[in-house]
């Protein structure tokens, strides 16, 4: 089989490519990434790599699909910065909605067997009592969540009108080896590691009592594969990831225990969901998900990896589309 993975230089894309190549070596993996948020060092040498921007390079994207005629598509490419998205609205919509529309067009045109799309828990907004269930009607509170929900709806429309088969995965707070720890605006666990390695205090926004369910990347790789190939996952929306409720404050304490030190600085609260806890039964029943790696074990492995990484320049936006209301910690 021929499998396209977009965002192949990022955390989900690179690790799924590794997993497929290691466990199903007869398959061909075609990777697409513009390297705006991932690194070429992450990409497995057996991946057939193409450096294009999905929102802009429609002709090149069409050529890739026409040449390989892939069977399955995993669409992971996105800029997942929820808190920053109100200040970079057009970039957010270009790199999520427009990019996904380009992929949907190709999947329809070339009769892809299934499109697997990674959405986000951000589509739920505040949810119902902080619990997020796939049957709830999404009500996102930031442009990133709006964009992802728009993508979900467009994919479902393509299924109804054009017969596109799909599976929508809503992963949550995925972390681990090959994560971008050099981005100032996303991936809180990686941000803390970067801060510590550069002599900075670890930042917590608000009181740190925001609750999350963190997901170690290795635990979700086989379920992601099954979301493409199993009949049962056809046209399903599935939360995927960790089941342990952890506050941001406690997560920071776990990492500081692993490192052996580290100062904390509290900064102003952000506009964000306070409790983001998904249900997980559907991922177990359909995809066979198992929560194997608790936060301490997962962070221990990620920290070992992070210490071996090169000194990379940290990504900082040179300017925002909107400065009004920008948080003090992101001001120039």
Could you describe the 3D structure shown?
The chain is α/β, with parallel strands linked by helices. The protein has helices at residues 11-23, 58-68, 89-109, 143-162, 188-197, 217-229, 248-259, 281-287, 295-307; strands at residues 2-6, 28-32, 48-50, 72-75, 114-118, 131-132, 166-171, 174-175, 202-205, 211-212, 215-216, 237-240, 246-247, 264-267, 277-278. The chain contains nine helices and 15 strands. The chain has a seven-stranded parallel β-sheet, with helices on both faces. Strands 6-15 form a two-stranded parallel sheet. Strand 4 (72-75), helix 3 (89-109) and strand 5 form a beta-alpha-beta unit. Helix 2 packs parallel to helix 3. It is globular and about 50 Å long.
Layout of helices and strands:
Blueprint: E1 2-6, H1 11-23, E2 28-32, E3 48-50, H2 58-68, E4 72-75, H3 89-109, E5 114-118, E6 131-132, H4 143-162, E7 166-171, E8 174-175, H5 188-197, E9 202-205, E10 211-212, E11 215-216, H6 217-229, E12 237-240, E13 246-247, H7 248-259, E14 264-267, E15 277-278, H8 281-287, H9 295-307
Parallel strand pairs: 1-2, 1-4, 2-3, 4-5, 5-7, 6-15, 7-12, 8-11, 9-14
Antiparallel strand pairs: 10-13
Q: How much of the residues is beta strand, in percent?
A: 15-25%
Mean pLDDT: 96
> What is the N-to-C order of secondary-structure elements (H for helix, E for strand)?
EHEEHEHEEHEEHEEEHEEHEEHH
Strand arrangement, largest sheet?
A: 3-2-1-4-5-7-12
How many strands, what sense, and barrel or not for the largest sheet?
A: 7 strands, parallel
